[in-house]
Design brief:
Layout: H1 4-9, H2 21-31, E1 40-44, E2 57-58, E3 68-69, E4 73-76, E5 87-95, E6 109-113, E7 125-128, E8 133-135, E9 138-141, E10 152-153, E11 164-166, H3 174-182, E12 187-191, E13 195-201, E14 205-206, E15 217-218, H4 221-231, E16 235-242, H5 246-259, E17 262-266, H6 277-284, E18 286-291, E19 294-295, E20 299-305, E21 308-313, H7 317-335, E22 346-350, E23 361-370, E24 376-380, H8 390-394, E25 397-401, E26 413-418
Parallel strand pairs: 5-6, 13-16, 13-17, 14-15, 17-21, 19-23, 22-24
Antiparallel strand pairs: 1-12, 2-11, 3-10, 4-6, 4-7, 5-9, 8-9, 18-20, 20-21, 22-26, 23-24, 23-25, 25-26
The structure holds adenosine monophosphate and magnesium ion.
Residues 202, 267-268, 273, 275, 315 line the site of magnesium ion (MG).
Amino acid sequence: MKTLDQIAAALQGYDPQALPVEQVHAFLQALVTTLPATASEAVPLFEALDRVLARDVVSPIDVPAHDNSAMDGYAFNGQALQAPNETTLKVVGTAFAGKAWQGHVQAGECLRIMTGAILPEGLDTVVPQELTRVSDDCITIPANLLKPGDNRRLRGEDLRHNEAALTKGQRLTPAALGLVASLGLPQVQVMRRLRVAYFSTGDEVLSLGEPPREGAIYDSNRYTVFGMLRRLGCEVLDMGVVPDDPVQLEQAFSEAAKQADAVITSGGVSVGEADFTKAMMKKLGDVAFWKIAMRPGRPMAVGRIGQAVLFGLPGNPVAVMVTFLAFVRPALLQMMGCTDAPPPLLKARSLEAMRKKPGRTEYQRGVVMRNAQGQLEVRTTGNQGSGVLSSMVQGNGLIVLHHAQGNVALGDEVDVLMFEGAI
Ligand code: AMP
Ligand code: MG
């Protein structure tokens, strides 16, 4: 395991006093390690949502197991089609889903068939019932309507026997749960949940239930952090609000690091903080203190205390959420063994001009919508102060103004990172 100094030495032009966002990513990638493959467990499917697969799911069967009908209609041999004329066939029976039809269909004959029913040997085409004319025990198929093979689902077209249906490192979505179930597998091998402890620091921070006090504020960071961790499927360890008191801080850090894979704190990492948080991090672990070239969320501390990775986030509520989304979330996913591609940035036309200084990354809260022409447009939520948490509630995404980017003019395209799927 590399020390923080070794990681820093490998980064070109590393400057903790003005660290570009890209370098933060590179640093964190080197800092965190993925849980060992042995840290996995078998869980029933209903408990597997959002978990990360610890090994490939190999299909024990072909899905579907037989060629079958995609429609309610009539199955026949496609060679019987009389293009350019109509085709008339005699109906000799009915095949229902769930049981194989016993019998034989001769030339000039067809079989009434339900969606999902097995196509008997020799039948490869289905005409939907609403497209046929029925008279007595015959059906007539209009000319030039079908070609052989239409409305047939092929054996193994979804998944093939012995092929990986899902791969190690994928996070299980609702669709993935359904896919595993379609293989007849009742459980999957997933990485164990990541354990993440978090607490807020600061003498001015009140826990819910405490009476209001002049100059004090209610702790919101523990709730946003809790929510974002839960969305990641982490096991959370809430350690409350810890005041600027060395004894209590030491106890909180030590306890958190002992029990968790990662520790997240908020507050106490800005320049000129008259508190003990930074001093305690330094005393107990290997920790770097950064000023990141970004807005909101400039100060941040990262490192290790014991075996745990430490993320010391700033105190401002929006800064906490943005730094979590930008840095902590990808790092935790890496620890969980998740190899899914990060959510894509979308392009939207800005409905406002925005002032932006090159040399830092800015994350503005935006409302992204589709205009009458179907194009994406975005406006900001207004006041972009890093304490204005309502902006995170009003917004549905972050407008990402990149490091080298300058002012944005009305109508310019900007990158947006949608919250949906991310938090
Ligand atoms: P700090 O990073 O400790 O200087 O805090 C920056 C700002 O965030 C200050 O206005 C704090 O009052 C505020 N703040 C710190 N911690 C929290 C918290 N847990 N919940 C809400 N606001 C906070
Ligand atoms: Mg503080």
